[in-house]
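Hey, I was hoping to borrow your eyes for a little while. I'm sending you its amino acid sequence along with the backbone structure tokens. Take your time with it, there's no hurry, and the full record follows here.
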Amino acid sequence: MKKTILFSLAILIISCKINRNEISEPLNKEKVVKLSFDNREFFFLKTDIHGIAGNHQQITLSIKDDKVYNKGTDFIFYSPEVYYKKTKDSLIIYAPECCFLEPVDKKYKTIIMITGLKKASDIDNYEKNYKQYGLERLSVY
């Protein structure tokens, strides 16, 4: 009887250790896309998932490659994905209209245009056809 209890306890401890290691892995692997323009200006599109359950998703467009975002100078998209097109001197980003913040201080040489997707059907359309529109996609997943 004691051997059975000890054996069961050992199995339980090993199982918990294995599961703990699986659970403690990070929810996301941050993605960073460096965008360079002809005017020698650089921007970084960065993904982030945070929160206890990993339910806060954001993509940031910044002039710095920092993990910390700045609401004064960064564009913040509270969305799991954005679509974008880069030209030699401009960047066009398509994202859900309700889910982004524009910075107060926009002193960039590069022209940045945000096109808000208003309806769920618009978002679905871009999700399915972004390549046909000549766009790139960045997702937190």
